[in-house]
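Marked as duplicate of an earlier ticket. Keeping the data here for the record.
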Amino acid sequence: MHIDSYVFGKIVINGEMYTSDVIIYSDHVDSPWWRKEGHYLDKADLREIVEAHPEVLVVGTGNLGVMKVPEETVRFLLSRGIEVHVEKSAQAAEIFNSLAGKRNVIGAFHLTC
């Protein structure tokens, strides 16, 4: 998978545009991606991601970085052997693209604020 572009509220992945939050796996995209609390990433929101056994999870926290990823959630992922990158969505897209095809990476992107 490759992120072609990201701007506030819109991400283009392999030529297909999404306007709702997404989880990008190596072979498909889940959208819309809903969390228990919209601007908060709880470890409970990551069940499917953890079950996919990625090496790396790249989290895009939105254009302005409003979605919070608490340290408890990061520690949970690390305890499962998953490397974690948390950045504003534009920077997270760059990281995701740099890893895709080289490592088993999943991207979880909040698209707006």
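See parent ticket for discussion. The beta strands are 3-7, 10-13, 16-18, 22-24, 29-30, 56-61, 83-87, 105-110.
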